[in-house]
């Protein structure tokens, strides 16, 4: 039970982080991305739209995982 | 722009479109063929040229639309299943549509991530027709190997989706999805990798083909839609007409291909495609190297 709670908390944190990262990718050009982000490129005005969409959807998948883990079946188990 | 228009003339667009529709769904590597054949025909077309990529966007979108249309009723059931599972907050063991839907989502994630991370690097490294020919030979060996390595006689009880949902584990879906990334290397086939992966987790040829086509639809469609602005933007100038013709040809052959393959795999295996890839790749390698 404790492990499940930890897993759910981790999934929610990762989900929020990935959704935020996705928004950053969509909103900011490559030159304005934090330097540790894949795709950061000094002087480039290119928007990494695909990175943003991928990050956003993987974030949603993390939320879906947390959603199922906290469902009625898992609560009664 | 006149130069671009002459690079993909309408007759070439028709040939490439017809080829793309077949080769995208047959486990023989569409990208490999679209790299090797122009070289064999002496056409001045290179896979990393902007106008050629724009052309491929149109043909891929046509293939994805055909796949979506062909499996439309299945997709409606699958989406309803996903909706049901989200509402109930569980994927019930008897809800085949929900399980299949989530298997497809789980399989699409690694394919998407690996595609984003490796697409440009792999295509830059393996851009030549010779390397595509070598990998086409390797594709033949991989297809043959998966047929030889399949675990046991396939399950034939229940309907197609029930069997897929029963046989495919979450880990299996991740592995089969990740195997799609092999298709980023010209010469290795996306549908071949996913069908081979399906066979290795215990699916029949027909079920593996069905899972491969369902899994391919969102990836091919999303990749094409994301690049659609290029087709309608300045990069599409001079290639838009041939791209549209190529897309129509691609749609016709893709429809015929998926119809044929779903019947073919009811009784047949990947072996004929393995033999074709091996010998066609070998012959092309010898021709291009000599």
Automatic annotation (TrEMBL), chain B:
It is an enzyme of class 3 (hydrolase). The chain crosses the membrane at residues 12-31, 51-72, 100-118, 124-144, 170-188, 208-226, 238-258, 270-289. Pfam families: BacA. The keyword Membrane applies. It is found in: Cell membrane. InterPro entries: UppP. Its EC number is 3.6.1.27. Keywords: Cell membrane, Hydrolase, Membrane, Transmembrane, Transmembrane helix. The keyword Mitochondrion does not apply. It catalyses: di-trans,octa-cis-undecaprenyl diphosphate + H2O = di-trans,octa-cis-undecaprenyl phosphate + phosphate + H(+). One of its GO terms (molecular function) is undecaprenyl-diphosphatase activity. GO terms for cellular component: plasma membrane. It is a multi-pass membrane protein. Belongs to the UppP family. This is Undecaprenyl-diphosphatase.
